[in-house]
Design goal:
Elements: H1 2-58, H2 68-92, H3 97-143, H4 149-166, H5 173-187, H6 193-220
């Protein structure tokens, strides 16, 4: 009987030991899982910040041929990382309104940035095609026998200042507009079709450059950091 009581006592200790080990394992697993989630989320956030910075750098280039495939891949990678981050955060912190609001804010601001980038790409394409057209037009003007030397020089100088303005080289839009207005005044005396085309296309390109600068700043000044 006494041996049976000792056996029951030892059995109880073993059960208690197993329970404690199980509890300790659960605690350690929870801590490890939490640490892993923290590191995974941290890595995702770092990658998202780098991708976001890449969009800012992309918006700096003006009037350049750009590989849009790379930037499109970066956008999709950001979205993939965000979805993984959202799933992990909401899975471990359900009902946390502050976290939910932050996630919604990140998604909203990023999509606004993506829309600005798409508009940027559209304007950049317009700048490229408009620039090539003006260069070809200026070449035709320089080779024309029906246009005076003074007008040819004026066109060449105006084109130079227009592209200096597009690169942000301390040329104001108003200065280029004055040059174009002078061409317009001279054009009334010299009704050459090439000059008219140059004047009209330069006005369009000048406005496109202004819009391009605004959207470029919008991308860089986006609240997402």
């Amino acid at each position: 009987m006494k041996r049976l009581e000792n056996f029951d006592f030892i059995s109880a200790l073993l059960v208690l030991f197993i329970v404690l080990l199980t509890f300790l394992f659960i605690v350690m697993y929870t801590i490890q899982s939490g640490v892993e989630n923290y590191h995974n989320n941290h890595d995702r956030l770092v990658k998202m910040q780098l991708l976001n910075k890449g969009l800012d750098d992309f918006a700096i280039s003006t009037n350049k041929l750009t590989n849009y495939n790379h930037i499109n891949e970066d956008i999709e990678e950001f979205r993939t990382l965000f979805r993984a981050l959202e799933k992990t955060v909401l899975g471990h912190h359900p009902g946390e309104e502050m976290l939910i609001d932050q996630l919604k804010w990140i998604e909203k601001v990023f999509e606004e940035k993506v829309n600005d980038v798409e508009y940027y790409k559209s304007l950049n394409s317009s700048l490229l095609s408009g620039s090539h057209f003006l260069f070809d037009l200026q070449k035709s003007i320089s080779e024309s026998k029906d246009i005076s030397a003074d007008m040819k020089n004026l066109v060449s100088e105006t084109l130079f200042f227009l592209f200096q303005y597009s690169r942000g080289n301390y040329i104001e839009k108003g200065y280029v507009e004055k040059r174009l207005e002078y061409i317009h005044q001279k054009m009334n005396k010299d009704q050459n079709r090439l000059i008219k085309n140059f004047y009209n296309q330069s006005k369009v390109l000048l406005d496109t450059i202004s819009s391009f600068r605004q959207i470029s700043n919008a991308v860089k000044d986006n609240a997402l950091e």
